[in-house]
Amino acid sequence: GNIRNTEKLNYDKQHQYEIMVTAFDCGQNHATEDVLVRVNVKPVCKPGWQDWNKRIEYKPGSGSMPLFPSIHLETCDGPVSLIHTTIELQTNYIGKGCDRETYSEKSLQKLCGASSGAIDLLPSPSATTNWTAGLLMDNNDMIFKFDGKQGAKIPDGIVPKNLTDQFTITLWMKHGPSPGLRAEKETILCNSDKTEMNRHHYALYVHNCRLVFLLRKDFDQADTFRPAEFHWKLDQICDKEWHYYVVNVEFPVVTLYMDGTTYEPYLVTNDWPIHPSHIAMQLTVGACWQGGEVTKPRFAQYFHGSLASLTIRPGRIESQKVISCLQACKEGLDINSLESLGQGIKYHFNPSQSVLVMEGDDIENINQALRKVSYINSRQFPTAGVRRLKVSSKVQCFGEDVCISIPDIDAYVMVFQANEPKITVSGMDHFARPAAQFESERGVTLLPDIRIVSRVTKVEHPGDLREHDGAKKPVVLEEMLHNLDFCDILVVGAELDPEQECLELDHAELQGKHLDATNSTAGYSVYGVDSMHNYEQVLRQVRYRNWDTSATFDRKFRVKCSELNGRYTSNEFNLEVNILHSSNSVDHVNHMIVQPQFLQSVHHPEGSTSAIHNSVVPSVATVVIIICVSILIFIITLGVYRIRTAHQHSSADNEGSKENEMDWDDSALTITVNPMEKYEKPHQTEEESEEEDTEDEEEDTTSAESDESEEEEEEEEEEVIVQKGDKRSATRQEQLEWD
After folding, report:
1. CA separation, residue 275 to residues 25, 161, 165, 270 (Å)
2. Could you tell me the pLDDT band of residue 722, with boundaries at 50, 70 and 90?
3. Transmembrane stretches, by residue range (predicted)?
């Protein structure tokens, strides 16, 4: 007989079925033995990649990490002759097309060894670069969005009028198709007449997905028909993706680099030079200034898209090496151990290493090669988020018109957030020096012991804390090394007076480092991508000079450093400098300034800064304290001496009154007597004074005893007066007549 199924068998539901078969005769007698029939369900073979994970986690600093360490291709025993695989890392939505360093354009150019003198036309808004304040900005301050309604005027003096025959324009641009059949020009950069006329001297613009550079020479420079417009037609101009453009002008030759690849113009048109005039010119970004031919000057030919890092460098052109460095991605695909790829494997990377193509005729070799494909991000602080991965494959088979189809792989790399560093600037925060040192040729070093340290907070692995379920995870501060991109020394309070004071630095200190510096009345700025150690070395050489210190007693400065163009910033380190003058009155004022600061640093030490105060500041403050303490001791000693002297005089007076109570010491007492009064009243006063003296000397006696002794003394005095006679009375009268 036959066994048949009533529905489709599914391997995923059940791998095997067991059926017991028995037989019966006509009399319904059972067979002596039954037969067991086993039906094994075979899985339906699905060609494709097996054993891969959809989510791949990447921690910053992991280096090159394999994406598919166990992957293999299932072909269901098909006769495969060739396998073609493409791995694509999709990062178009990250920054400017991939994870690049987010340093300022000026710092990046210094890092890549570009020529100095580049002028940033789209800087981050600040007090000195305020022309970009009204533009729309992306979350990242370095990307500016233009919606066709705004432009920016570059102030006069930022870019020189004469760019010479050699100059370079660099920019990042993201642009889509222009609306309408006859799209208008979209200006990226334009230098035109400010008033009266509407002549464009040089401009870079997009027109119908073509990039056009215009350069009109002045009539005094050339009086012949010269190349004026250079056109490039590229698909990337309108693909809504980020691309890096460099226009190298070496007149009459103009070369375009896009994403590091050279492109020659497909069309060059000639024109006559511009006639000379005294009309001022206006440089603009995002639109072109129309100063003439209209009732009111205004912007025209607005740009639609995003721009970043727009710079112009007069007098120089850039090399291919520098251009490649400026647009290089810091993340991409990689192959671990190219030597062990195996024979018969061909591979190819695109310039940004976001696409890898592999080809081979052996399945096992392809499997091994794909297991070595990895993701790498060389940034110390990468942009966190998702990076999409797509793997597509095509298979050719022997002798078959229709071959097996391999489904695509859709996976993603999850890049974790890096531990945020805490940058700390420390050092001596207060000192005082004589005015002569500030007025000297070298001035005074501001930051002789500055220290820049960065630490990250790390939490210990939770696997070791099972016994402490309710406790907090221990936090560990770990010192780390990374680069900085600028440090500013800002003047607190009134700006520096250039006629009497300045900050100085020998530019020889910058040699051999990726650093540069700018100076102004607001402070001193050191910038460039370099190590914290190199920044310390340079900052320790910055000096403050003041060649007219008569009206200046102190100056305050603030130091602040940054990494990744302000993404991570340090604490604000404040420094106070006191100028000690030679005159006594000024010395006194300065001591009053210095002493509280020193006492504050003693009572509130902070790490190593306290030791610095103890070794430097006491040179002046200790002298002041010693003088004050010496004066106090002298006053106390003098007071004790005078008290003891007065006490001795008092004791001598008391002894004299006991021996002769009527003989007064007129040197110690001053008694004024009214001569109009009778003798009895002075006599009574004399008796009362003697009674008070007696009470002071005999404090331990009772009041009754004191009264009795007073009465006895009065009786004795009366008897003596009676016995003496007239001569004694005359003497007595003379003693009572005081001067």
Report:
1. 121, 16, 18, 16
2. very low
3. 620-641
Half-sphere exposure of 534 (CA within 13 A, CB side): 19
Whether the CA torsion 531, 532, 535, 540 is positive or negative: it is: negative
10 lies in the same domain as 155? no
Nearest CA to 184 out of 216, 199, 206 is that of 206
Phi, psi of 558 (to 5 degrees): -135, 130
Arithmetic mean of pLDDT, 531-543: 95
Q: Which two tokens stand for residue 402?
A: 């229709």
Instruction: Report the chain's terminal Cα–Cα distance, integer Å.
Output: 164
Between 620 and 382, name the one with better pLDDT: 382
**Rounded Cα–Cα distance for residues 661 and 652 (Å):** 13
Average pLDDT, the chain: 79
| Residues 338-378: tens digit of each pLDDT | 776 767 888 898 888 899 999 998 888 999 999 999 999 99
Nearest to 289 by CA among 157, 200, 186: 200
Summarised one tens digit per residue, pLDDT across range 135-170 is 888 765 578 999 888 899 999 889 988 888 899 999
Q: Is it true that the peptide bond before 252 is cis, omega within 30 degrees of 0? A: yes
* Residues 114 and 255 reside in one and the same domain: yes
Q: How many helices (H) does the chain have, and how many strands (E)?
A: 11, 43
pLDDT, tens digit, 9 for 90 and up, residues 162-187: 888 899 999 999 999 876 656 788 99
269 within some domain: yes
SS3 679: coil
Whether residues 227 and 352 share a domain: the answer is no
Largest alpha-carbon pair distance within the chain? 188
* Backbone CA torsion sign across 440, 442, 448, 452: positive
Residue 231, classified by CB atoms within 10 Å of its CB into exposed (0-12), middle (13-18) or buried (19+), is: middle
Do 263 and 165 lie in one domain? The reply is yes
Residue 460: pLDDT over 90: no
Spatial distance between the Cα atoms of 725 and 575, rounded to a whole number of angstroms: 91
Alpha helices for 452-583 (secondary structure H): 532-539
Same domain, 307 and 379: no
Residue 526 maps to a domain: yes
3-state helix, strand, coil in the chain (%, to 5): 25, 35, 40
Residue 483: C-alpha distances to residues 61, 239, 564, 568, 583 (Å): 15, 35, 9, 11, 47
* pLDDT at 705 (0 to 100): 44
User: What is the tally of structural domains in the chain?
Assistant: 4
Rounded Cα gap, residues 535 and 539, in angstroms = 6
**Is 50 exceeded by the pLDDT of residue 316?**
yes
Residue 70 neighbours by CB distance under 10 Å: 11
595: nearest Cα among 549, 559, 633, 626: 626
| Residue-range definition of the domain harbouring residue 20 | 1-44
Shared domain for 265 and 294, answered yes or no, is: yes
DSSP, res 274? B
pLDDT tops 50 at residue 121: yes
What single DSSP character describes residue 162?
A: -
521 lies in the same domain as 534: yes
Residue 231 lies in a domain: yes
Predicted pLDDT at 343: 73
**Would you mind telling me the total number of residues written for the chain in this entry?**
739
**DSSP-derived secondary structure letter, 586:** H
Gap between the Cα atoms of 588 and 582, Å rounded: 10
CA 100, 101, 104, 108 torsion-angle sign: negative
Residue 534 corresponds to which tokens in the numbers above? 């190199």
Is residue 184 located within the same domain as residue 309?
Answer: yes
Question: Which residues touch 388 (CB under 8 Å, ≥6 apart)?
Answer: 89, 90, 410, 411, 412
Is the pLDDT reported for residue 610 higher than 50?
Answer: no
Radius of gyration of the chain (CA): 48
| Angle (CA) 289 104 102, round 5° | 120
Flag whether 661 is in a domain: no
pTM of this structure: 0.65
